Amino acid sequence: MATTTLPNGPIEPTEPAPSGTPAPGGTRFGGLRRITTAVREAHGVPKFMLWSGGIISLLFVITAVFAPLIAPYNFDTYRDGGKNFPKQGAPDGDHWFGTTVQSLDVLSRTVYGARTALEVMVLAVVFSLVIGVLLGLLSGYFGGWLDRILVLVMDALFAFPYLLLAIVASFVFSGISGGAVVTAALSITVVYIPQYYRVVRASALSAREATFVEAARAMGAKPSVVIRKYLFGNVIQSVPVITTMNAADGIGTLAGLGFLGLGIQPTDAAEWGYDLERAIDDVNAGMWWTCLYPGLAMVIAILGFTLLGEGLNDVLNPTMRRRRIRKVLLPAHTGRRTVTAPELPDASEGEAVK
């Protein structure tokens, strides 16, 4: 405890802030500031992957959000102006991507398929993020029997192949209310919860032994306060990388379910996996357009989020991040030496020395 004296008078003594306690407003956005600094300093291949993946992902999101404005027709429209669309028509001026065997416009279904993929992807990532991070924090902080049970359950789920686990979950959630999009999102959520849990639990186990956490407990902070204020900010830093990678994998998992006929039904929404399954017979008959454009859209979307995730991993991971080395320029050597004469003592000082 110390007292500071100012020109206007002394102020009240203040207690020094405990070690590890963030100053008010000083490090509240420290994690975000570190991320933006790391992204700004990125260069080379990580910078290329980060920005190219971000641009592709942004285009995918814009296409999905503004699908009603971009697509010429609705996803289930097969006639316009009292006239049916041509059946399995080749691409032309009226239908740029051609039509399907159900006389549906391929361009409209491809654009609306992006919207369906975005809805399922966002719901699945949000559900997995909330449940996985919460269970990982509780398990890593408290430990004991809760940690053992959760580890056993998550390891059992993690042992299943992704697509097989999603298929089983789709049967379990088939009768749930909320529509086909929510059912597909819950089926994919079961797949990704163990990933968030394992990463967050490992970070929480190491962070709970830190000095600032011990200081907070010694000051009488409740477990909820310690988890919310001290653990959460330290374990959440690796989550954005997992989120982007899961977003890419979620698009492929949804397409796999739709290809097997277990995803979203064609009357509910347009879905790329279902369109690819219906296009198998068309390819054998020489009609390539019904599978090319949905498959190409799916590959581009997955590529965008994959590049974004890999770029974030290279930029934010301190073990893989390479800082830019700046060349140090030294002043040129002139060949002449400048000698500075020493200062002579004053007469008074000389007399004092004598």
Main attributes?
354 residues, mainly alpha, MetI-like fold, two-stranded antiparallel ribbon, 4 strands
Overview of this structure, please?
Strand 1 and strand 2 form a beta hairpin. The protein has a single domain, classed as MetI-like (MetI-like fold, Orthogonal Bundle), CATH 1.10.3720. It is mainly alpha-helical and 354 residues long. The strands form two sheets. The protein has a two-stranded antiparallel ribbon with strand order 1-2. The protein has a two-stranded antiparallel sheet with strand order 3-4. It contains 14 helices and four strands.
- Strands of the largest sheet, in order across it? 1-2
- In total, how many domains does the architecture comprise? 1
What do we call the CATH homologous superfamily?
MetI-like
Structural class: mainly alpha
Short description:
This protein has 14 helices and four strands. It has 354 residues and is mostly helical. Helix 4 runs antiparallel to helix 5 and helix 4 runs parallel beside helix 13 (289-316).
Any chance you could write out the topology, listing elements then pairs?
Elements lengths: L4 E2 L2 E2 L19 H11 L4 H21 L1 H4 L8 E2 L2 E2 L21 H37 L1 H16 L2 H11 L7 H28 L3 H8 L4 H13 L3 H21 L12 H7 L1 H5 L4 H28 L30 H7 L1
Antiparallel strand pairs: 1-2, 3-4
